[in-house]
Write a structure and sequence with these properties.
Elements: H1 5-26, E1 29-30, H2 31-38, H3 42-55, E2 58-61, E3 74-77, E4 83-89, E5 93-100, E6 105-112, H4 119-137, E7 144-151, E8 154-155, E9 161-163, H5 175-182, E10 186-191, H6 192-203, E11 212-217, E12 221-227, E13 230-232, H7 255-258, H8 269-281, H9 285-309, E14 313-317, H10 324-338, E15 344-347, H11 354-371
Parallel strand pairs: 4-7, 7-10, 11-14, 14-15
Antiparallel strand pairs: 1-3, 2-3, 4-5, 5-6, 8-9, 11-12, 12-13
Helix pairs in contact: 1-2, 1-3, 2-3, 6-11, 8-9, 9-10
Length: 383
């Protein structure tokens, strides 16, 4: 091959991406180890590493304490050269998390907000949550590369919410546009259940699964589909909105737990379902009956998705996943009576952090596509 001009530049870019990928996957490596992984000579890899170091993407790692002699130089990817924010905009809380470019979470905050709070109040809670993360990490908005937010509702590719039942003020809102006014970085907006499913695929109990039904259960009920290892958005970004079908009985299903006679008088709405689930764990017959009614409703929509997709796995996620010991056995029984083949059912280990973690992962994927794929342009100077 006659390598000239643009061909040589392209080859250097591909070698740089190979080196970055190896460092991100395997941690600090010596030049020899890095060259072996990349299939390059040590001298060629030295040129690549020198260029990446000058661009700010790679740096030398100091020798470990107590190392004898002259150790080989080791290099690492500078994941701390930029920062990402994930935001979970819920009906009752706004959660935010700050991470490095590899998705390692550095700080988390939460701001309470009422379900019927005015639009500007909810947006102010988002700003406080993100500012809290930045303050805890001693960062500023100038350090942010990407902010990814998850929220309830049908959200289009442009970040506009076309319909939201849980937060009425959200309907018709250009959420991405409002967030861009608040934060000087790239902004991504996605449905919260799909982000939660992404978190399960990337770092949760669905890492080994290709086809998944994710149940987002808590104060409200949502769902997402993973098909061939990818979260499925659908043609109009409305895939998984089973709660919109009245016959599925999902929208009001949590009320069985919130209004159960097992809930002590004076209990706040935020804690009502937790009391019912805790009482059911203790064998309280009234609570067990309420849980049964809740699962009767949940199983209808779940069975419909299982029969449609025939998934390898169903994941019970969201806040109620902490009570999987109470919910999973009777849910399995109900699905077994309705489904041709019962898939494996697992409980999420991410709990109610699933959306904010998924938002971080969504931002990481965006950065990977923009900078670290063969289709990306030349690597810029890191900030």
């Amino acid at each position: 091959m006659d390598l000239r001009g643009g061909d040589l530049s392209r080859l250097r870019q591909l070698n740089s991406l190979t080196a970055i990928r190896a460092l991100r996957e395997a941690g600090p490596l010596t030049l020899s180890a890095l060259a072996e992984r990349a299939g390059l000579s040590r001298s060629s890899m030295k040129e690549v590493v020198d260029e990446l170091t000058s661009l700010g993407w790679v740096e030398e790692v100091p020798p470990s304490a107590g190392t004898m002699g002259r150790p080989a130089r080791r290099y690492r990817f500078r994941a701390d050269s930029g920062h990402l924010v994930g935001v979970d905009i819920g009906g009752h809380n706004v959660r935010a998390a700050l991470s490095d470019l590899d998705g390692h979470v550095l700080a988390e905050t939460r701001q309470p907000v009422e379900p019927d709070a005015p639009l500007e109040e909810r947006l102010a809670a988002i700003e406080r949550a993100v500012s809290g993360c930045l303050a805890l990490s001693r960062k500023t908005t100038d350090d942010l590369w990407t902010l990814a937010a998850g929220s309830t509702g049908v959200i289009g590719p442009d970040g506009r919410i076309s319909f939201s039942v849980a937060v009425h003020a959200w309907t018709g809102l250009d959420l991405a546009g409002r967030l861009r006014e608040m934060f000087p970085c790239e902004v991504l907006v996605e449905n919260d259940s799909r982000l939660a499913a992404l978190a399960e695929v990337r770092r949760g109990v669905a890492r080994d699964a290709r086809d998944v039904v994710f149940l987002h259960v808590g104060r409200r009920t949502g769902a997402a589909l993973v098909i061939s290892g990818k979260v499925h958005r659908g043609f109009g970004a409305a895939a998984g909105e089973m709660a919109m079908l009245p016959e599925a009985r999902w929208f009001d299903a949590p009320e069985h737990l919130n209004t159960s006679a097992a809930v002590p008088p004076g209990t706040s709405p935020e804690d009502a379902a937790g009391h019912t689930l805790a009482a059911a764990r203790s064998g309280d017959p009234v609570a067990l009956e309420a849980v049964g009614r809740y699962l009767d409703d949940l199983a209808v929509g779940t069975a419909a998705m299982v029969l449609l997709l025939d998934p390898q796995l169903v994941v019970l996620g969201g806040g109620f996943s902490r009570s999987a010991d109470v919910l999973l056995p009777p849910l399995r029984d109900r699905l077994e009576r309705r489904c041709i083949r019962l898939p494996e059912i697992r409980a999420s280990t991410l709990g109610d952090e699933c959306v904010v973690v998924g938002a971080i992962d969504y931002a990481v994927e965006h950065v990977e596509r923009r900078f670290f794929t063969p289709e990306a342009g030349p690597l810029p100077l890191s900030r």
